[in-house]
Every structure is written in structure tokens, then in C-alpha cells.
Fold:
Amino acid sequence: MTAALIVEKLCKEFGGGAERVAAVCDVSLEVQAGELFTLLGPSGCGKTTTLRLIAGLETASNGRIVFDGQDFTRLPPFRRNLGMVFQSYALYPHMRIFENVAYGLRARRAPEAEIRRRVTEVLELVGLSGLEQRRPGQLSGGQQQRIALARALVYGPRLLLLDEPLSNLDAKLRVYMREEIRKIQQRAGITTVYVTHDQEEALSISDRLAVMYQGQVVQVGTPAEVYESPATIGVADFLGRANFLDARVVDARGDRVRVRLPSGAGLEVGRGDSAWQPKADEAATLFVRPERVRLGREGNGGAVDLPCTVQRYTFLGGIVRYALDIGGGRPVLADAQRLLPGIHVGSSTRLRVDLGDFRAYPGAQRPWGESA
Amino acid sequence: MAVVVLSLAGLILLLFLVYPISRIILNSFLPTDAPFGWTSLTLEHFARFASSSLYRKALVHSLTVSLAASVLALLIGLPMAFFVARVKMPGKTVLLSLGTLPLVVPPFLGAYSWILLLGRNGILTNFVKQMLGVQLPSIYGVPGIILAFTLGYFPYVFLLAYGALSSADPSLEESAEIMGGSRWRITRTVTLPLVTPAIAAGMVIVFMQSLGSFGVPAVLGGEYYVLTTLIYFQIVGHFDLNAAGAIALVSVGFTAVSLYLLHHLTERRGYVTVTARTHAARQLDGRGVRALATAYCVVVLGVALIPQAIILMTSFAERWGTGALPTAFSLGNYRRVFTAAWGPMQNSLFLATVATLAAAVLGTLMAYVAVRKAVRGRWVLDLTITLPFIFPGIAVGVAILSGFSSGILVLSGTWLILAVAYVIRRIPYIFRSAGAALTQIDPAMEEASATCGASWLRTSTRITFPLMLPGVVAGACITFSTLLGELSTTIILYSARWKTMTVAIYEYLIADLLGPASALGTLLTVVVLASMLLANKLLGRTLGSLFRMV
Structure:
């Protein structure tokens, strides 16, 4: 596969003089043809700015954007032949649905018959045939969302940009619409860059994703890679529930590292941060997802096995989240699929984690919410 | 493109706004009829406020009537705003529309009807004398002017306070109630402080309008001079532009101070602008309070609309007997004005239309550049364009006359000088309303157009300007209406060929020709109302909300 969209060392600074702030700094990305690529990160991480730079709505302070071999960097947005869906949908209240959708075709001076045909086709694609004469205000949020998508697709752009397209919908509709968007994107086979701050959305919809923080790309990978092997504690924490255990480095062996827990137990685990060169006796942090922590007395081999006490548990419907005291430090969270018989608050039990589910990070790293 | 618009705007503002205002400022420091020279600069015109009792009295009178009118407008307008906003009453939209009516009708028209009612030979004066044997105090001078100002301008306080009261978040009051505050305590500590900025703004507008009004004191003042009539006297009596400029500057000074105080008040207290309301405020619906509220509103509006009723009646009056009311009605006055004042009618429509269109186009373009384009130094544009706002109409007239009766561009005696003055005076309104409309348009609308492949030109003509249109049309309708009723600027700048309807009415009134004056006034009111209703229809808003942005 070849990269359709190449972003090279992109920088965007806002303001001037002493008030200058870099919203995006040194961002480099490659998006494959036909791929749905997501920019994920907390608010203010620069994901939307990156998307707007790709769209041409902002001008880069530095760096290059190349799409299909064409240099986009200085091209105005209307010459880039792309489609974009905005968070607010930006449907035109003074136009009917037909004219809203036809807008890009009219801008391209398409013949009337073709406009009619294409609008009909794209409305069929998004499943909203028959609404041509309505006004945007008469449509539900989900319908408006699909019209915005139709408007961005109707003129056959080669690149589709979506800026938090689902954030104005309620939770159920959001799940439904993200599947719809994925289906429509697959059918149209269009290279897509998707921006969201919702990690579940990003994991479920993307072929690959880039996690951004403070204007920089922290990690790029498939949803599974990023979720299972986060590059930093920040990514680990942002992408879902995470347990962090304090530990000390014993020694490093290739891409694995041996650590010792405060209880004295020693274990050999994978290194999460590939740039990290662990030194003996250095502080380290172990990461494991709560759903990989098993509770109960019967054990099986190859795993860490620790005694613990149940501090409290929270019933969450699909799962039950137990908070476990392992004798000092932060409690360890364990997700069980149902309430475990015989395990109550105050019960002594054991927790087990497969060694492969641990990742080790330098001890100085902190989750994003806790950093300065 | 932005640069072109900006430089064009800059040129127009420089020539027709900055230049005349600089001239009037400079002139007011020059001796009468003296050419410019650094050595001849003098304070003699300003010194007259100390030396001449005419000047001193005019200043004191102006401040007295304007302050009194603002306070009385508060006393009348605030309770009414509270009743309409918070008491369950039928026909609130009607009340709001009728409450706007006094603003629509040129106030000097109404002023004369008070003479008809309360003058030396007025209907009420005679009635009271016959029934009670009491001679009412003279309507001329202070009482009449204050009466006309108060009833003509109190809707500003009413509408602004109503807006604030009806859009303030009710949960603020509800939380105070839950914490145990009594109704009076809540009103005093929560409700009133929340609407204080709106009330203060309303009072300042009343003060500015009163200070700048020429027609009312000219009709009701008699020998009693205020600043505006003194300016007129200097121009028409002595053609002393320099002295008139100095008086105008003093008047501008008071306006500026009042605006500064308003700004200071709202800034210092750190008021949060009203947020989106979650639910409607609860309405009082006790029988007593409803009766009180309804009675109050009916009486206030009844009294405020008496002038309109009198004008309407007088316009149809053919003969007045010895009694209070006319004895015969006909269309004679209308026939008369259609022949005698046909020219002024055409002039008014032509001037108001041309000036409105020019102001709409220029104001919209400037608002677009100021809001959407990150051009450096746009605050200069913002400040300059709102400058005429603090200039009373008569001061704008004097400034334009100073600027264009001699020197680089001579326009006096032509229709252009009136059109230019009208545009300059009203451009801030269009600028504000177009700017407000623009800031409410999600920038994503324009961005979506660009990503769809539309050029800048296509985006602005298909998306931006159509979306701004309602705001611009609203501003334009108000501009058109107020220009039709404009007298303060016109009285300084009109010529024999370019006499307007308002000048014609003024001349009829001075000549005591009430019938034709009323007929012309009624026609004016009808056109103005039609234009406001059109704006109303186009925007789907109430008449009152159109005025709230003023």
C-alpha cells in the first residue's frame, strides 16, 4: 500500500510575539489510500488544528502536506477537492436539503441533470431519500449528521475529513452512527481522517489511529496495538481504564525488563516505551488493564499471583469493577463479568495477571490528567 | 479583497466622518469667522458658558430636562417592564408593540399635541378651568419638554429592562428562594442587580436622546433655550459655525461622560452577560397583582399614545367649534399636503432610501471585514464608525456643514450633503446589527462552503450575506424609519430645494397650521410603521426586539 496523505513535520503557531502558542508541533503522519485514520486525544491536543490544516482552513507555520503527490500546503481549501463534516454539521438554514447537498456540485458547475442524479444517489447512500425538500431545522440530529456526510461525499472527493462528527448526538445514536459512517466510508472506499476525543469511538471505527497530546503525535498504530501496548502511561490512561503499580527495575534484557514489586515479587515484563533504557534500581511503573486482572483462589501457571483484600466494588451492568488492596500503593482495579460469589468487601482473595498483559514504563511518567 | 474594502471604508470614513469632526473641533477653538491659524486659537466660545447667561441657562436647562426625563423614564418604564415580564397578563405582544410606538413616531410631532391638550387654550386646560376653576401651569418650558421626553423615550428603559427581566436565568431567583429569601429580598438582592446594566443603558439612551433632541424643545421651549436650540440659533441667526461647534462639543462631552459612566458601571461590577435560559420565569398570577399590572400598563400606554391619537384626529379635523373636539371631519388636510408638501414627501422618501441603501452596503461590508477578517488595526474602524453614535444629530449636522460648506468639497445646498449626513449618522446601527448577525453565524458554515469547493466570492454571496440578511434588513428598516423622522440634522443642512417632510411639518407647526402638520405627521407615521412591520414580518420578531439592539 502507498500513503495517500503525507503530513511532514507540520507546525501551527497561533498568536504572535510573546503570546505565541504552538497548537501543533512537528506532526508527521502517513495515511494509506482508503484507510480510516483517526486523530485521537484530549481537548486542546491539536487534533482539530491538524485536521483544519489538512483541510486548508488554517495555514501551516511550517511543514508540508502532500496528498496523492500534490502539494496541499499552500492550496486554498476550495482547490483541494476534499469533503469535510463539521462538528456542528454547518448545514445551511436558508437552503433546502437538496440544495445543501448539491452545494459542492454547483460550485463545480456540474450540469443540472448530473446534480439531480448524484444528489439522489448520495441520499440513497446515507439512507435519506425523500427528504430533498425539507429544511435542515426539520431534521433530527442523526439525519442532519447524515446530510452533512452526504454533502461532503456528493462530488466524489478523494479525501474525507470528519471533525468530531458524533459529539452532538446522544449515546445510543452515537454508537449507531459510527457504524453507519464506517459502512458508508467502506462503500465509498474513500481515504478518511477522523477526529475525536472519544477513545471508544476511535478504537471501534479506525483502521489506524494517532494519539495526540500537547500538539504532538505520541503514538500511531492499529486500535489493538495502541490499546494493548500504549507507548506511554499517558496513552495507556487515556485509552481506557488502567492500573499503575509502582516497581523498581532489576535489570533490562532486550526489549523486556525485570522489575520488583514492593511486596518483593520479581517479574519479567515487556517494555511499553521502546525509547526507554532501564537502569538497575530505577523507579518503574507497571501497567495492566482491569479486564486482564483475574480474581479468585484457583490459579493457573505463568501468571503473577498476589494476595489481596477487596476494598469495594462497583456494579456497572455489563461488568463489576473490584478495587483491591495489595498491601500499600494505589488499589488495583479488576473487572469481572459478574458479581463473584463469596467475594465481599473485606474478603481476602488472590489476583492473577498473565505476564504478557503487563507493560513497564519509566517511573517518572504520569497520566496526562496528573501532569503539570 | 479585505484590504480593498478596508481602504475604501477608511477613505469614506476619513472624508465624511473624521474630516468634518476634526473641522468642527478645530473650528470651535477659532474666533467667529476667522480663518485657521495656530495663533488665533481661542477659548472664547467656551468661555461664554461662564459669561453669557443665555449659554449658562441653556446648559442648565439641557441637563435638567435630560436628567429629569431619564429618571422619570425609569420610574415609568421599570414597573411596566416588570409587570409585562413577570405578571400573567393577556395581550403581552400587543403591549410590547404599542410600547414601541412612541419610539417610531418622531417625538416633536407628539410634542405639539401636548400644546393642543395643555396649552394656553388647550382642550384639557379649558376643561379643567371650566370644571374646577383652576388654571393649569403653563406647558411651555421645563414641564412640557420633560413630559414629552419622558413619554417619548421611556420605551427605551421599558424594552431594555423587559429584555433583561425576561431572559435572566430564573434558576438564580429560584435558588435564592430555596435558600429562604423573601420575595422582596430576592427582588432587591438578585433580580434588580441582574437587570441593572440594562436599566442603566436604557437611562443613558434616554439622556442622550433628550440632550440631542432639537424638535421637542423647538416646539415646546418658547423662549426657553436648550443646547440644541442654541446651536440652531447660532447657525440660523448668526451663521456662526464656530460658536455652534463649541456648543455641540460641550453636548458631545456630556454624552461621552454618560456613556463612560455606563461602561464603568457594567465593567466594574463584572456582570455576566445573560446566559441561555433553561426555562421560563415563573409568572405572578395573584388577582390583585394582575389587576394592578394591567391597569398600570393600560394607563401608561394610554397617556403615552395620546399624542398619536390627537395627531390622527386633528389630521381629519375640518372645523373646530368652541368645544374641545372638532365639529366636522374631512380629508381636506390630506388633499392640501399632497399638493403643498408633495416635494418634501418625495425628498424624504428619496433621501431616506438612498441613505439607507448606502449605509446598508457600507455598514455590512465594514462589519464583515471587522468581524471575519483578521486585519490589524480594525479596532480603529470599530471606534471610528461608532463615533457618530455619541454625536447628537444636530452636532453631526454642524460637523458636516463645517466640513462641506467650504474647503476641499463643497456640498451645501445639494441633496448629497443630507445623504452624507444621514449615512454617517446611521452607519453605526447597520454596522452593529450586521456585525451582531455575523457573529451569530457559525464560521463552520463558511468553512464548509470552502471545503465543498466554493471560492471566496461564492461563499460570501451564497452563504455569508444571505445568512446576514435578516440582521441587515432589520437594521436597514430601523434606519429608514428614523431617517424619515429625522429633524435635528436636517434642520441644519436642508435647503429650499431639499426640504424634507419633517421640516415641512416643523414649518407648519411654527405657522400654527395644525391640520396640515397633523396630516403630514400621520402619513409619516404610517410609512414608518409599515417599514417597521415589514422588518417584523421578515424577521419574525416583535417590534420591541428590533429596538433592543439600539
Strands of chain B lie at 317-320, 326-329. The interface with chain A takes residues 442, 444-445, 447-455, 458, 462-463, 466-467 of chain B (CB under 8 Å).
